[in-house]
Amino acid sequence: MSESLDAFRQEARAWIQESLPEELKSGPRRGAPKEALDRWFQALTGKGWLTPDWPTEYGGGGLDRKQTQVVKQELKKARAPVPPASAFGTRMLGPTLLEFGTEEQKLEFLPQISRHEVQWCQGYSEPGAGSDLASLQTRAVREGDEYVITGQKIWTTGADKADWIFCLVRTDPDAAKHDGISFVLFPMHQPGVKVSPLTLIDGNADFSQVFFDGARAKVAHLIGPENGGWTVAKRLLQHERTTDGGSEGGITGAMKETFVDLVKREVGLRDGVLADATLRQRTAAQEMEANALRLTMRRAGEEARAGQSTRDIGSLGKYRWANMVKAEQDLAMQALGAQGLGWEGPGFEAVELQRTKAWLTTRSDSIWGGTNEVQLNVIAKRVLEIPE
Q: pTM surpassing 0.70?
C-alpha cells in the first residue's frame, strides 16, 4: 500500500471513530437511539461518504477507486450503520443514473440521494411477473408531457415509506415483451398510488403491494429511451446483485454481533479454538466462502466500473450470497439450540429473539431479487454463454 493511501486509511479510521456516536459502537443496532443514528447519518452524508466515489457536483465524496475501497473497508470494520433502505438510492438507482441519466436528471436526483433526503423503492415484480420479469403488464400511456400509469406491483420493499419509485412500465403493448418496456421515476405521494403492506413470516411488513390507478410520471423523468427500459433495468439489477453478493446486508447486516461472534459465545473456546469440532469446521468453511465471495464481487465491481466487463456476474454473487447467508443462519440456530426458537416473552434475550427472526427472514434470500433458478439461468446464458 502506498504511503499516501495508508495515511488516508488512518485519516478515515480516525474520522469514523470520532464521528460514530458511542451508542452505536456497542450493542445491537436495532433499537439504537434515533438521535444517535440521525447524528451519525448527518455526519456520514455531510462528508459525502454515503456515496464516496460519486463526483462532488452530484453530492458524492469525489474519492478515487482505492480511496473509496478504504472508506468502505473502514466503515465495515467499525460496523457503522447506513441509513435504512439507502441501498435503493445509493447502490442501485444512483449508479444507473450516472450511466443512463441526462445531466438534468443527474443534477435533480443524485444530490438528494447522496444526502439520503429521499427514500426510493423498486417497482419491478408484479403478481404475474416475478421470475419472468419481462412479462410485466403495468401500463404507461403518454398524455402530453406525462405518462398515465395503471397496474400493480408486489413485493415492493419499503414502499410504505418511500417518497419515489423507479418503475418498469409497458409503453408499447404490441412490441415483443422485452422491447416495449420503459424505466420511469415518479413520486409515491400522489393521487392514483395505493400501498398495502404485507406481513411476512418474521413478523415484519417490509414488503407491500402497490396499486396504480391513473398515477402520473413526467416524460422528463424517463430514464433511457422510451421502450428501451429493459437495458436500463438489467443494468440496475447488475448493481443490485453485485451489491448483494458483496454485502452483509439485510437483517443480518443490521446486527452488531456477527454469526462468528455468536458461535464463539454460545459454543465456547478450548485451547483458543471453537470447542465443537463439527461447528468449528463448518464455521471456518463459511468464513472462507464469505471472504472468497467478497473478493470476487469486489473484483467484479471494479471491472464493471472500469468498463472492462459487461458480463452479468452479479447473478453469481446473488446466488452464492443467498445460499451463504441461509447457511450462516442455520449455523447460528445450531449454536443457539432451543434459545434460538423464541418469538416473544420471558426466557429469551433480545439478541436471541433477533436471531430467530433473522433465520426466518433469510429463508426468502433465495427468492427475492430474482430466484436462485433465475440466477442460474442468467449465469448459464450471460456468464458461461451456454446456448439455449
A: yes
